[in-house]
Amino acid sequence: MFSPKFVALVQALRGLPSVGQKTAQRMALQLLEHDREGAAQLARAIVAALEGIGRCESCRIFSETPVCPVCADNHRDATQLCIVESPTDWLAIEQSGAYQGLYFILSGHLSPLDGIGPEDIGIPELMNRLANSPVEEIIMATSATIEGEATAGYIMDRVDPARYKVTRLAQGVPMGGELEYLDAQTLSLALKSRRSV
Amino acid sequence: MFSPKFVALVQALRGLPSVGQKTAQRMALQLLEHDREGAAQLARAIVAALEGIGRCESCRIFSETPVCPVCADNHRDATQLCIVESPTDWLAIEQSGAYQGLYFILSGHLSPLDGIGPEDIGIPELMNRLANSPVEEIIMATSATIEGEATAGYIMDRVDPARYKVTRLAQGVPMGGELEYLDAQTLSLALKSRRSV
Ligand SMILES: [Zn+2]
Ligand SMILES: [Zn+2]
């Protein structure tokens, strides 16, 4: 009903998380009707992000430099390594302000039924990361879901318990809860009361 | 905390309607982490839309051609002109399938307190549109809000009641309701039972 280029724009906007047909249409109308400069800005920001943002060699977070600012910061405690499932979880922990160690960001969790194995989520890279590092404590901050627990278990089976202290976020994380939806205070508490496993 | 290009992307996404900081972050992460091809597609779709989509000379809806497909369709009834406040309202009526006439799309409604006068919403263009046309019935489909009613009243004061039959959508439109949120059936009924004013 609208022009083909409008339809294509709506279609592309629908690719954004939790954007359905109606919302995508409203977004496209808003961009064309009231915010053409904002739309141009968005297109430029996407292209710049795609071209300029890669992954940190060390922790795999998005980074514009080979090593991200967190990994490059020598005020961070390199003896602690916090393992998370996603950049969103990384962000949630960073924003809590309760953690001063380093990170390793997996690409999700193990899910054998979906054919997602250790290689798909970066576990070999994690093992390399651990091999040549001063890490003493591994903080398993995967989600408190069945898959998150299974992923943590899989990793724990493969690290030397004599060499590393392995901890898990405390019970403050609700069962089935995803880290990215937790408030900073709950996350802070869960980090502070983390326990050995 | 994230890289500057990521922050810029989040900022640009926040310009979309009803997208706050948290949602924008999730969108940016999704695009970079899981959907780089979709992100590139979105950037291209935005640029193509901005470059290729203008306004129909006749009704002012978004169009890739000087005259839009609706205005160019000689199966539509050129004696009826439906006046709406926005492309979204236009879309809602088109999707109801209940209307076969033509349109004129205003840029919103009059709002003297915000300094929005007749010239800002396209009323002079509407008068030109009426001047050289076979229009017999003007259907005022502005929103059932105070501003929508005031806009309809302003236009009605300026068209010759001897020359045009002027109608308004029937009471099916709830008071304070915005057209774009109505279901197609309610809109169909409101159109069918429109009344002379
Ligand atoms: Zn890093
Ligand atoms: Zn037109």
TrEMBL record, chains A, B:
GO biological process: DNA recombination; DNA repair
Keyword tags: DNA damage, DNA recombination, DNA repair, Metal-binding, Zinc, Zinc-finger
InterPro entries registered for this protein in UniProt: DNA_Rcmb_RecR, Rcmb_RecR, Rcmb_RecR_Znf, TOPRIM_dom, TOPRIM_RecR
Residue intervals of the Toprim domain: 79-174
Gene Ontology MF annotations: DNA binding; zinc ion binding
Origin superkingdom: Bacteria
Keyword Transferase set for record: no
Positions of C4-type zinc fingers: 56-71
Signal peptide: none
Described purpose of this protein according to its UniProt entry: May play a role in DNA repair. It seems to be involved in an RecBC-independent recombinational process of DNA repair. It may act with RecF and RecO.
Family, per entry: Belongs to the RecR family.
Annotated NCBIfam families: recR (TIGR00615)
The protein, known as: Recombination protein RecR
Gene: recR
